[in-house]
């Protein structure tokens, strides 16, 4: 894979079905190519890149048809309009309409709103926006009563949002349970609100997770009881449902997680006891069982009666709300509630990024029927794009055809209801819904003399596509009515997902993973003082850059060389010093990853790898020089400088290559392995007569690293494959396992693991947990982050310097094991950047931190805190430890290399740092027996 491709794929995330700007991106001419003509064989120095035409933001205008950004040149505008109108639009365009279009440069001030502040506090433990002082204050409104909770786990798994109409009360966001639908959020329970009201109050719920429990024969009316299960590894709030089977108590299942999280503290703290009965038995063996439970035991109120009553009332209200929600949204329709919640949150927090038409369109979704909402979400989460309506059937949707008609009328889906609705552009995708046998039947109706091609599905589709006009009737007879998500709805919902999650790899399935308990996110407060996208133009530019990245990725898959070069060319032309300087001077520098220039730079970097792969070093040099010229404060400058120096050397321009390497060492953004690599290049290229003076870093970078040699019986000796050997036990193993066997035996009786960077990132995450998730403005934007946004920037250490140094002092004083144990017990199973719970046991981690010692461990943690991105990879393969008789220990770090392996510069950088920090570090070279 080309360098930078994997990173670009993660940035793109889930690919979009429709790219609204694709036609403009692919067809728009570029005023001056930054790539040299392939037919030119000259060896230019690359300086001509500075003469390339630079287009500033003010030279772009917004097309009123497709809302994409277009160059402000009359010829380009006219060409773009022709393309837009050719594609067709539902809007009837008159000459007056065309004349009234406003191709204004700059942002639309009427669409910008004042940046609001979202705050969180212990009493208001959710993300909210502080009221504008001019907004009216709502008082004494029961429907907006603020509720206090000190247990953030109550709302951890789903973001909490208020209603769009009345989200605030006295400058604070309402503490409203995230599971409540819009119809429930503004109402309070009218029964059983206090301690004295709960007796005899029936709660209707379900028994779930039956596959993890005993097989019990159940019947309607069977008696059940509840029992806490605090040792449950999946959920410490778990509540088991028990029944008596022939006098033996057995576990039928569990209460839903949403209900258990509120009911469990009531049972633990107040001694509530619940009994009930099974109301009906489902047909499917493992389906949820409807039950009715009732409180049948008095509660205990402590000495602080007022405080206990307040806690009880708050928890009980949440219980009532969850039960009501479960009634409104049964277990198999949670996705509907999650989707609505996501829409409401984006409408509330980002109104300045949406036009009035877009807001109206999104808000109209909430007014659709339950069937319409559920069908849309179901279709949106499937691959598609086209589906046979006759084949769509979901148990929670009563009438799919009626729902489809409603969605079509609202503009959320497109329908093919007759042969005349089949467009040539959609034909291939429509034919794809048919089975091979059905395609053959359609082909058999054709003139036998015209039948050609193979019998594979794609061959049949290609044949029918070429003669589609003659077979529309036969095609429609086979497919019937077809349905797909409309381009408008798809584009807007994609935008909503991106604004909500801020991560292309997260989507609606994230809600499902949390609901099922598969993923648990950390507890933190969202303190928002700055908007990521200050205006709509910034968002549209960012979205178009993501489109270019997706087109680039698809072009690489299809090996479409022309399109690859166009994407490279277009991306480079849109990375200009003015836009980059604007982003780098932002008050929140780590927001730069959400800018178009940052995305384009990743496309350009991938383009550099592509050009180098084709030996087009002149073009690669030109692009690298432009990246270095435009991005003056970027961590990738080290890699760019290294590649530039290497490409210059490929062309035989050694003097220039040396100069670039020397200048790179003066750059503060050149760090870690790339710095070591540049230093070694300077030493290699800078020999007399080019340079007579030896650099000051010569002795440091050329230090000898201890080497140990191990011999083994090889299994394979094929270049390009991973070396395999026979271990001491006769089993096949890799070089790392062979080295572990050596160190466990004659190498010194060491215990050890092959973990590379994983073990260190896990230790760092556990020790730094509270600091990573402490209250820092703007680093947490939703409840689905595993790390703060500034984790891989210099801002991480700078914003938490006092906290980090205080913790590292404790680590240095020998308290690492205590901190590690506490963090493990409090957060086990919670997702966190770098922490791998299943890869390492607590006993191993305790032994490791004890044997490493406080000073060495503190130095590594400080290194990672100051520059996580540069140092989170390349650590030695093996971590070894052993104890002495006096309960003290020692550790060793070993980089293992096979017969055909060599040390990377990042690995060398780590080994040199570890040696400076006082570690016992060495290289183990495995070679075949002679």
UniProtKB/TrEMBL annotation:
Domain of life from the UniProt record: Eukaryota
EC number, UniProt record: 3.1.4.1
InterPro entries: Fan1-like, FAN1-like_euk, FAN1-like_TPR, FAN1-like_WH, HIRAN, Rad18_UBZ4, VRR_NUC
Cofactors (names): Mg(2+); Mn(2+)
Role summary: Nuclease required for the repair of DNA interstrand cross-links (ICL). Acts as a 5'-3' exonuclease that anchors at a cut end of DNA and cleaves DNA successively at every third nucleotide, allowing to excise an ICL from one strand through flanking incisions.
Boundaries of every HIRAN domain copy: 200-297
Record flagged with keyword Nuclease: yes
Family: Belongs to the FAN1 family.
PANTHER family, per database record: FANCONI-ASSOCIATED NUCLEASE 1
GO molecular function: 5'-3' exonuclease activity; 5'-flap endonuclease activity; flap-structured DNA binding; hydrolase activity, acting on acid anhydrides, in phosphorus-containing anhydrides; phosphodiesterase I activity; zinc ion binding
Pfam families registered for this protein in UniProt: FAN1_HTH, FAN1_TPR, HIRAN, VRR_NUC
Record lineage: Eukaryota, Viridiplantae, Streptophyta, Embryophyta, Tracheophyta
UniProt entry keywords in alphabetical sequence: DNA damage, DNA repair, Hydrolase, Magnesium, Manganese, Metal-binding, Nuclease, Nucleus, Zinc, Zinc-finger
Residues that span the membrane, as ranges: none
Catalyzed chemical reaction(s): Hydrolytically removes 5'-nucleotides successively from the 3'-hydroxy termini of 3'-hydroxy-terminated oligonucleotides
Compartment(s) where it occurs, according to its Swiss-Prot or TrEMBL record: Nucleus
Record has Aminoacyl-tRNA synthetase as a keyword: no
CC terms in the record's Gene Ontology section: nucleus
Protein name per the record: Fanconi-associated nuclease
Domain VRR-NUC intervals: 811-928
Ranges of residues in domain UBZ4-type: 60-85
Swiss-Prot/TrEMBL GO biological process terms: interstrand cross-link repair
